[in-house]
Amino acid sequence: MESMTAVEKARETFNSGRTRDVNFRRDQLKKLYKLVEENGPLLVEALEKDLKKPSFEANMIEISYILNDICGVLHNLDKYTAPEKVSRTLVTAFDDAFILNEPYGVVLIIGTWNYPLMVCLIPMIGAIAAGNTVILKPSEIAPYSAKLMAELIPRYLDKSCYHVITGGAEITEKLLNMKFDYIFFTGSQSVGKKVHQAAAKHLTPITLELGGKSPTYIDETVGDEKYAFRRILWAKMVNAGQTCVAPDYILCSAEVAGKFVHYASEILSQFYGPNQVNWTDIACIVNDKHFARLNSILKRCDNIALGGKIDHEKRCIGPTILTNVKAEDDIMKEEIFGPILPIVVVESLDEAISFINQRPKPLTCYVFSKNRQVIQRILTETSSGSVCANDALVHLSIDSLPFGGVGDSGFGIYHGKSTFQTFSHQKSVLIRGYSPILEWVSSKRYPPYSESNLKRLQRILKKRQFIDIDPSWQGFFIFLLGAWTLYMAQHVFREYLN
Description:
By secondary structure, the protein is α/β, with parallel strands linked by helices. It has 17 helices and 18 strands. The protein is globular and about 85 Å long.
């Protein structure tokens, strides 16, 4: 009943036109910024309770990212919401043709547990900026973060526009049976399929941000191995590997694999102490179910080259590297989502590309090489939601780069302006005038039809690059057309006098 009331209230408010006011949107975004800024310690504490997430990671990857995203949207909100002029043809030269970003209406945002604040609030920022009302459903697997958002959001934001609904899978199912104007889901592929099916019943547009096994190819020309390997290991261990774009497995030659294991021991000792069991800087596995799954993987492995340490009481797993991994091994059949890094030996770049292409399209593909041709081949001969070369995870920090999957890793994009566009319908608009000249030209379309009129229209409407009128040239074009019209009028008048 609570969820139904919230959806009805959100729809009533949207229909009132309240959220269409850009100043209202700006004010709500400022209040959301204030929420995060003023409650930073509470948010970090919630992340620590849910995931034992280190304060450094919580502040850098979640809190700071959210604040910066709000700033970026506020800086550009007027530009985002302004009508976008488009080029026209001779027939529509005097008319207004533009794209208007219009809010969808009531949107449902379903978050996941691994980054419980970021995956909820980043989409919400774009939804608010675009003028929608929002029903936010955080993940019940991160209960402290969900509860805190449910408490704070009504204190800071408009209660009639933005609602937080907490609860388990049954609440999500009830929400999905309702009619929304847009659905944004972040989570697993299995649940994503159910969300997609539910959205299809109402023909609701949807974004699915899923996961997948993101490969990391290391070329022999990697350069400074320590730099490269340190970046890979950091990206793998952030949030204890519970990141949808974490390097899932490594593809490299036997020689590079040997160097990786050798340097990894030194690097991980620098990160987490000599025994690599300093759990202070390692997040825990989110719950017993996921911990048991990862523990089961390790028990079946007889090829642990490094690590494998476990603290059952804290639900912590240390960084673990597996060697001699085969394509058919169980660990290569599903996303790991933990601090376990398999190495698959390949003999060449061709073999690595073939290996990637034989599997579902990943959310991200990583390549480490000093050879630009190697990077280019990964870019052009594989398909993934994104590519990052010579580092990992860092591409997510650039909000001007759209983030999203392809194929099994999802569809739709967000981050920065892309989030605003995701929650906006791009409405095409043409406003015509009643110019006598253009009406004379356009009159050739009216019956009675004739072959001559058809040919004239086809000549006028034929797409030519030099005839497309750029919006910035509209004034100059109108001036030239006006001058030409005046000249012709004078010419006709002189002939009449003679």
